[in-house]
Amino acid sequence: MTTVSGPHLMRWDEVADEPYLVLPSFPDLRLTPWRAGDEDDVMRLFNEPEVGMFAHRRPYPYLREHLPFFSDVLGPSSRKTIDNVLRPLLHDTPTSAGHINYSGAQCAFDVPYYPCIMLRHYPSGKLIGDLRLFQAEDSAGGDQNAGFAGQAQQTAQPSEQVWEIAYNLMPEWRGKGVAGQMLDVIMAGWVEWLGIGTGMAGVQTVNTASAGLLASRGFTKGTTFMEPWPEEKGGGEREVAKWTVTPATPARHNDLLQWDAIADEPYLALLGYPGLRLTPWRGMQETEALRLFNDPTVTKYSCRRPFPYNREHLEYFTDLTAPYSQETVNTILRRSSSSSAASDLPHPAEMPFFPLMVIRNHATGQLIGDVQLFQPESDYWDMELDRSLRVVVPQIDSPEEQTWAISYNILPEWRNKGLGGAVVDVVVGGWAKWYIETDNILSSRLAASRGFTKRRTFMQAWPEAKRWGWDQPSHVKALAWFPALGKHSW
Questions:
Q1: Count of structural domains, the chain
Q2: I need a labelling partner for 60 at 20 to 30 A (CA). Which of 213, 308, 442, 467 fits?
Q3: 367 touches 288 (CB < 8 A)
């Protein structure tokens, strides 16, 4: 099972002007809203015998006259969620979708309708499946469409509500792990995100594949009952089981931090980039590090790092930070080596050194960038050029009261691929938010896209050696960016 983290999953597509949910293990797939033009693909999907015969309520054969269900029944609720919730959160004020502030509900209990119901290939846009989430208790009532469209009255807190999950896939996409990833994403990216108390799925007992998938995702089999089946789908009665799952209470949780048993080291997985990860420094990568830190577009923005960057400067990795990195790995992270995730790691009173300093291509082992998370002194920009301060500053305050800085660099050929944003997401979500409420200093545009707000500006003396090739005065304006997210909102 691939673990996923809710806050990182919901995004906004500027070109399509719509929200979508990423599938971390399938970067070419995403869950999006219904679009005009999906009609032919929907009819093909719902008329597949293995899809149509297992659906108790959906018409079969599925005809064009049934398609207004999407535009007229689901459309208004979908647009309401997008316009009132997701567009303000993801587009108008770009963030990593840390929490939903739903102001368009009719009452305080209302959970918004889930709009990203179509699984499609990206960038072709071809529809290859669907995933629905609707109010289970109301679906058997007199107005089934109200439940399907999230319009039924909600008289209980979200934690007391039950919402039903249903999904379908085109035949050529089955058996690839896509269905399991969709379940992971809908649970972490919506059900847990909104605090819905219970997810439910109804499955015929003869459908052992779906039953096995639900069991692998933590669902438990509950009551079974005999359901009269429509004549056009075979008639008679079918035994149906209700499978339910109750998400864990939100807490400090880390499902991004993993352990590589072969390399015998921890790593942070980069969502949307399954071949890339953050790992500790390894020997025999000095040439790659020198190339990175001597790249003009990297070093000109670094005030303190030496330039030219020579082999003697690599002692920062091999000698200075190595003991602290090894201490974190051996005393904290290695404890998770018997499991696939580090979600049960302790929350120490003192923030440990961040050891996952290398952005790495896992297949080749190549170093393609670096990332640092470190504690500055009282004034980050007035700090002496003693690099040891990055790791040995005494921690007077509790982690929640500390300010830590993020910096990162990426080789030129890996830029403009969204990698910088993924690195910031995983460092904040997979480490910093696990321990502290972080104040970060990083690239301004990317910072704004991740929900950081500009705190202050000031003039910083800049080394002469780093002023080539661009018209830069001896003092440059620097910006300090800090996150706008509330405490533990992730």
A1: 2
A2: 213
A3: yes
